[in-house]
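Researcher: Next sequence.
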Amino acid sequence: MKSRNLSAACLAFVVATSASYAVGQQPTPPPTNQSIPSDSVPTTTGGWPTPEEVVTRMSSKLNLTDDQKAKITPIIAGRQTQMKALMADTSGRRLQKARKAKSIMSDSDNKIEAILTSDQKKAYAQMKEQTKEQLQARRQQNAGSNVQ
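Model: Next structure:
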């Protein structure tokens, strides 16, 4: 029972921490003999995309207005700040961290959804579901490779 709860908590944490990445998938890189347009090169050097990059990906899928982009960018920035702080905190238990991560994601999702139109909300829900499925598939693939 504890193992099942821990697995569920870990999955929730992974989903929560990865949702900002999965708002849009990066396109496959062009062949090496072609140049990469400078506007498509991510500006981040670490593992986290900038809030602007996240909003740009969201915009391409949701057709956000400039006003919506301006309102969503600080929500994403705040979410990332909270998630980074949570991940850096070594004092908490995994389950507590997973619950907190889920809460952070839920709060930011609610704020974002309040800005979206009804059609955009539907598309956003589909994006989140696709992200969840991709993370579950990755988790199963990783679990299978660890069993060997």
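Model: Residues 118-147 form the longest helix (30 residues). The radius of gyration is 17 Å.
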